[in-house]
Amino acid sequence: MDTTGIVRRPTAERVRDTTERLAAERDVWVSTAHPDHGPHQVPLWFLWDGRAVWLCTGATSVTVRNVRAEPRVRLALPDTFDVVLLQGEAECSTETEVPAPAAEAFAAKFGWDPRGEEGSFVYVRVVPRTVRAWRGEPELRGRAVMRDGMWLEQPPVPRP
User: Fold this and answer.
1) Please, what are the domains in the chain?
2) pTM greater than the 0.85 cutoff
């Protein structure tokens, strides 16, 4: 891979780019682990509400089973050059427990409302504690843009 010409972005720009991608993208890789059954990774649709990532999956899925046993998760956007990795703890909400604004925003984004489907679904909310974002080798050092749940630079107002 040719990485010549890549210019290191200031932290504020990486935070802005990261929050814009979280708002716009559709898919995220979700990594969970169960103390007895080991690691599990799956792509899921997600919604970024400005503070947390919301996912929705079947109530009997491996993801839900793992999160209930071990809530620490890692999330990754699917681009291996423009990397965004999130780490946090997940909380599960049933279809009746999920806050209406989150469920409605999820349904609006995807044109699919799990609350009206056959079978049971669980909403999984992940508040990131750590976010790392980098493009190529020039940004490897200092790639953390969030630590302990706080952005290192406040996200600027989104571009129009």
Assistant:
1) 11-149 (2.30.110.10)
2) yes
